[in-house]
Structure formats: structure tokens, C-alpha cells
Design brief:
Elements: H1 7-23, H2 32-52, H3 63-84
């Protein structure tokens, strides 16, 4: 069984997933390729959310880490819009 991640590691991993989502190459057409692109981006962002969603409810976590996790969660919709906006 793998070792549980600390809250700091979870936040770091979530930021890495967000960076990976922004680096997915945008397709030139707006057909099925764009649908697949959108699904890949949303999947990466969902994984990032899943990593940090329970940090703010943990009683033993430092308040600064909880605040950082909440800010990350609150920024995800804007990040998604920024990545998926038409160019």
C-alpha cells in the first residue's frame, strides 16, 4: 500500500496537474478533436480538485495550508475558462 500524501504534497501535485492541463495541445478544428481536448483538460482539473478538496476539512492541517487549498479550489473555474477559451 502506498504512503498517504501530506497536504503540502497534495497541493504541489494539484498544481502540477493544472500545469499539465494548460500544456495539452489545442486542436486546430472545433470537431471531435476539440471535444476530446476539452475532456482531457477537465479530467486533469478534476483530478487536481480531488487531491485538495478534503484538506480544508482536516482538523490537524495548518490553517495556512487550508487557506492555500481553498484558494486553489476557488481558482479552478477561472483556470478552466482560461484554458478552454477560444483563441
Amino acid at each position: 500500500m502506498s504512503k498517504a500524501l501530506t497536504p503540502e504534497q497534495r497541493i504541489r501535485q494539484a498544481r502540477k496537474l493544472i500545469d499539465e492541463a494548460s500544456e495539452i495541445p489545442r486542436p486546430s478544428s472545433m470537431g471531435w478533436d476539440f471535444f476530446s481536448y476539452t475532456a482531457q483538460v477537465k479530467d486533469k482539473l478534476k483530478k487536481a480538485f480531488e487531491l485538495v478538496k478534503l484538506i480544508q476539512h482536516s482538523p490537524s492541517t495548518d490553517p495556512e495550508i487550508k487557506r492555500e487549498a481553498k484558494e486553489l479550489i476557488d481558482s479552478l473555474p477561472e483556470i478552466e475558462k482560461g484554458i478552454l477559451k477560444p483563441s
